[in-house]
Amino acid sequence: MAVKSLNSIRRNFSPWTDPAAKPYIQFENVTKQFGDFTAVNNLSLTIYEREFYALLGASGCGKSTLLRMLAGFDEPTSGRILLDGQDLRGVPPHKRPVNMMFQSYALFPHMTVEKNIAFGLKQEGMASADIAKRVAEMLKLVKLEQFAKRKPHQLSGGQRQRVALARSVAKRPKVLLLDEPLGALDKKLREETQFELMDLQQDLGLTFVVVTHDQEEAMTMADRIAILDKGEVMQVATPQEIYEAPGSRFVANFVGSMNLFEGEVTRRDETSADIQIGPDLLIRTVNPGNSERKAGVNYAVRPEKIRVSSKKPEETGVNSAQGEIFDIAYLGDVTNYNVKLDDGRIVKATVINSNRLAEDPLTWGDRAWISFKPDAGIVLTR
Amino acid sequence: MNGGGWSRFNIASVTAGFAFLYLPIVLLIIYSFNASRLVTVWAGFSTQWYVTLWHNQALLDAAWVTLRVGLVSATAATVLGTMAALALTRYTRFRGRLLFSGMVFAPLVMPEVITGLSLLLLFVALGVDRGMMTVTLAHITFSMCFVAVVVQSRLLTFDRSLEEAAMDLGATPVKTFFAITLPVIAPAIISGWMLAFTLSLDDLVIASFTSGPGATTLPMKIYSQVRLGVTPEINAICTILIAIVATGVLIASVVNKRREVQRRRDEQAAQRT
Fold this sequence. Notes:
Chain A: Its EC number is 7.6.2.11. Chain A is an alpha+beta fold. Chain A has helices at residues 63-71, 113-123, 128-141, 157-169, 187-204, 215-221, 239-244, 249-254, and strands at 23-34, 37-48, 52-56, 78-83, 86-87, 98-101, 175-179, 207-212, 224-229, 232-237, 259-268, 273-277, 281-285, 297-301, 307-309, 320-330, 334-341, 346-352, 367-371, 377-380.
């Protein structure tokens, strides 16, 4: 598959492609109900050691419940959760080798930064000299050495986040759970911290499971992302795969922005397919997908893969259509166009402003052509 | 209107309000320094009633009883009230919760006469000799619900993730309670204790029903003496009580205020770094 070659951009780490790799955390047919509400519905997931795994979904999709079940604050109504082969049912939170970083940070307000970080180590019965050493190490790691004696309310939001992080990794847990770890930080700080988290995970060799509703955050940090909706897994894949080869219309729409053309497959072979979208648009794609379905399929193509031009493309008849500029949003780095095709369909197109002044200036109401390459999109049958 | 200035109406209403509240107390304090035995006739300044008070063994004994009853009952009521508050906020789904919370809070609105009388009937039925113990028990009964209310309101805003974080870091539930929950809600528990202590000091009705010989509390003593005529001695002891309470309130509010100011300053400083 063409998508495969996109994968290992960040690092050569993909145990999920290796059938011999041993799963580290397994959710097996886990269901969680709160009264009549089903938060998690017969869900199965596999997470590997040292993986940076993101649970991505809108609020109420069950992602936090999954994390809380892993930490031991909630027990599954049915199904099993295994950690390193051990069934976690009935193991109370204080006996689980996982630590969690809370969304609210949950720093103990009556303790100094030092004491907060030392808390977990004390519970282990570690010798006080060792505790002091480890605490110093952690403070250095999160660059808060001079704040050791402060109380949480004497720290800024970013500093509190670091203390929470230091406290949760101080015990060297097998797995670190992060519940919206960067949610309370402002945009700039969030971007810096994302990379710090990734470095930390690499350096300490931990398994990270992070819950987030921010797709950019998940895309930046995670090795794999699980997209959740209404307590079910919609897709688990690398960020590149999720973006370039979403498995369903839901995922395609959820992550980033997407044009979906519904039509009928008129021809298909191993390497290509033709899809007729209305009377005017014929799409020829080199990603035919592997479904036999013909009617009611969707062709999904990202806005940035669509070209907009006032000039007629070299090849017309396939993968191109004519319309008029309906809306323009200039964002500096890119310009978003909404093009209204002659059959009334609205197509989103994103043009990167690689030159300061556009060579082909388009404005509201102009006639324009849209076109895309045969490998620009994929066929979705779900 | 001149913005935030004081209109004549404002000045008048504030004056009337304060006069209404404090004029009787001010009179009482002034007359405690009266040289005359007659309470309503001013005969010059004197501290003689404070001196005689010091030699009035009966009053001193009553004060000592009151203090002991107050300390013991406030402490016991704080423990019980905190436990009740925890049960009410933490276990929201147990059977009979509504009945339980109703029963915990009923004494708040129950007329004291009824509480006192029913306790008296109970003690008589059980054949318990009335004395300091029965007064203390009675005070625990009615003041624990006040503690429960104070502590419960704090627990409702308590961030449960603090406890989860502690357990997540390996603390057992019991350890979590003593290391995290208790210190965080301590201010509410302390104010609950102070409230219970004050209620016990103040109480006349319930104490009259449940006490026996040798366990006369200060309010009982004062009340019985007043029935024989108000003496400047009573004024003196009342002035001392007022002084104690006022000092306590003053210290508490100054400490609170300082802490708050310090906290705000810290938070501002933290945002700058």
